[in-house]
């Protein structure tokens, strides 16, 4: 593909919409639209034998309240996606950086999301929280056991495909480490 022209670029704090004319290998001219967004971070939050999720939040895109892992965008200017994890956990669960015992990356290079339409990547992390910390009940939504049964129940409740993907990646790694 060859880019012939960028005929539209609309920038907002959340995304950039780009319209381009492309020429394919057969010489055909195509109008192509894509969205550029900041990369996303989803954090599987563990305290002892429990997975912690914040209170369900309203999602305008689906007009529904959903249960999700803590997550957010990688802010412009951050060197690495891992630097977003403490900010996300503080915002969504009231956990300070000093209360995070360990952060592990599940996707060092990120996973591409919708590569035909967007340039966004998803980074998955696991944050192990100090076992003696008492999480603010106003911020804690639900907890699930780290067992197979708990994971299956959580998968029934998660609507977010990104959250499901990160959970399944963690579960795969966790299951291998346990054997």
Could you describe the 3D structure shown?
The chain is of the alpha+beta class and 179 residues long. The protein has two domains: 2-36, no CATH class; 40-178, Alpha-Beta Complex (Nucleoside Triphosphate Pyrophosphohydrolase). The chain is 21% helix and 40% strand. The protein has helices spanning 84-93, 148-157, 161-178, and strands at residues 2-11, 16-23, 29-36, 40-47, 50-54, 57-59, 64-66, 71-73, 100-105, 111-112, 121-129, 140-145. Strands 4, 5, 8, 9, 10, 11 and 12 form a seven-stranded mixed sheet that branches. The model has no long low-confidence stretch (mean pLDDT 92).
Supply the key terms.
179 residues; Nucleoside Triphosphate Pyrophosphohydrolase; alpha+beta; single chain; three-stranded antiparallel beta sheet; seven-stranded mixed beta sheet
């Amino acid at each position: 593909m060859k880019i012939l022209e960028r005929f539209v670029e609309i920038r907002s704090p959340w995304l950039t919409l780009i319209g381009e004319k492309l020429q394919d290998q057969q010489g055909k001219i195509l109008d192509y639209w894509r969205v550029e967004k900041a990369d996303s971070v989803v954090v599987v939050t563990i305290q002892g034998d429990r997975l912690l999720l914040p209170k369900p939040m309203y999602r305008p895109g689906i007009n529904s309240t959903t249960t999700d892992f803590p997550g957010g965008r990688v802010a412009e200017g951050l060197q690495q996606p891992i630097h977003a994890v403490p900010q996300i956990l503080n915002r969504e669960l009231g956990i300070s950086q000093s209360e995070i015992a360990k952060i592990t990356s599940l996707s060092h290079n990120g996973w591409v999301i919708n590569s035909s339409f967007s340039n966004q990547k998803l980074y998955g992390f696991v944050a192990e929280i100090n076992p003696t910390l008492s999480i603010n009940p106003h911020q804690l939504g639900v907890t699930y056991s780290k067992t197979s049964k708990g994971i299956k129940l959580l998968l029934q409740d998660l609507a977010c495909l990104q959250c499901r993907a990160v959970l399944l990646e963690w579960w795969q790694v966790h299951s291998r480490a346990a054997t």
